[in-house]
Amino acid sequence: MNNCPSCGHERSKTETRCPACGAFYPTIAELLAEEEAYEAAHSWRGRWQKIWGATDRKQAVLEECKQFWTGLSLTGKFSLFVIFVFVFALIVTVL
Length: 95
Ligand SMILES: [Zn+2]
What we know:
Blueprint: H1 28-42, H2 44-53, H3 57-71, H4 74-94
Helix pairs in contact: 1-2, 2-3
Zinc ion binds near residues 7, 9, 20, 21 and 23.
């Protein structure tokens, strides 16, 4: 990261604060913690742990599904839809 994360001003390696906007640059430890939090929020293991740890599991599952759906791209939604239709057609023809 060579620029200030809040204003985009070019940063030097020795400074801990941005000279333009005064914001503190994130340290390596902060960046790692952020990455870990992101990983926990977006990986299946993290999701599972969140659902498992929630008091209202049904609500947690619904919340995760909603997040998963909004995080999905249009092509992702489309392919899921195609799979769903394909499985449905298969079941209907078999029955
Ligand atoms: Zn700045």
